[in-house]
Amino acid sequence: MAIHITGAPCCWGVDDVKNPYLPPWQKVLYEAEQAGYKAIELGPYGYLPLDIDVVSEELAKNNIGIVAGTIFDDLLDEGNYENVLHQVDDICGIITKLPKLPTEPGQRYPAPYLTVMDWGHDERDYNAGHSDRAPRLSAEDWNRMMSHIKGIAEKAASWGVRAVVHPHAGGYIEFADEIDKLARDIPKEVAGLCLDTGHLRYSGMDPVTWLRKYADRLDYIHFKDIDEKVYNEVLSEHIRFFEGCGKGSMCPIGTGMLDYPAIYKVLTEEIHYNGYITVEQERDPRNVATSLRDVKASCDYLHSLGFE
Tens of pLDDT along 241-288? Predict the structure, then answer.
């Protein structure tokens, strides 16, 4: 069995393509290879160009593959739905034309995946991590979002891409009750789960428990770690999720509050997960000077546990 370490551009502060401080995408691919990654996520829609020849040349230059594309957008608004479906076509049109990553025995669906995350709601963003005060969707709104997710997953499947829904701090799929509702309302034949160890812990859940609980839905995983001191400070403030990341709430894996030996054990000895995990460390892109150092530290630590 094998669990391969991959990365994401958010480790270089790339979350909002409108942010004027983003590093060049070529620099991200170069440093990803320098850190030891063999693959990386495409990043938010519009960060890497949609020109297959341009992207392919740069990936080949750095010996980097693509493990997933990303939908990170408002999944609730009916007026945004067609825009999101257009993104799915553009993203899948790129990632399905690139060289495929190896598929491990027992890996249910091959990479690349399409990670699907809800985002863009101030009333949730300012309550990230606070299950007790974060507003929940009405039944009508929830059902509309589920319908949109099903449509996104079906559109991805038409390209041969597996959609995986990613609960994300600050979106409308974050807390325990919402993950359970999602799992009930989206059949595993339609979409899988991409659980994120850091988002789980940030939002009050034990990652080991939830990786175990949804082992049969777990097609892809994100890893991150949390600086406990900064996390406690951020949760005491009226602050957006990414503003907290800009203060350093996320840290290199192995240096924060998550128990990665226990996570490795549950993945390898209990649920026998095979395939890919992606390291993330959200940050302010103005702090990109330490990205390579931090990404390499995360990779080195995970290699020491037995991840490949």
Answer: 999 999 999 999 999 999 999 999 999 999 999 999 999 999 999 999
Compute the radius of gyration of the chain from its Cα atoms: 18
Look at the chain and count its residues.
Answer: 308
Smallest CA-to-CA distance from 115 within 130, 129, 95 is with 95
Please give the backbone phi and psi of residue 51, each rounded to the nearest 5 degrees, phi first. Answer: -85, 110
Q: What is the pLDDT of residues 197-250, one digit of tens each?
A: 999 999 999 999 999 999 999 999 999 999 999 999 999 999 999 999 999 999
User: Tokens in use for 95?
Assistant: 């990632």
Strand partners, 69: 114
The span from the CA of 289 to the CA of 294, in Å, is: 10
In whole angstroms, what is the distance from residue 205 CA to residue 223 CA? 14
Give me 290's structure tokens: 């330490």
CA angle 44, 106, 56 (to 5 degrees): 35
Please provide the DSSP assignment of 183-213 as one string: HHHS-TTT-EEEEEHHHHHHTT--HHHHHHH
Cβ atoms of 113 and 220 closer than 8 Å: yes
Cα–Cα distance measured from residue 235 to residue 256, given in angstroms and rounded to the nearest whole number: 16
Could you tell me the pTM of the whole model?
Answer: 0.97
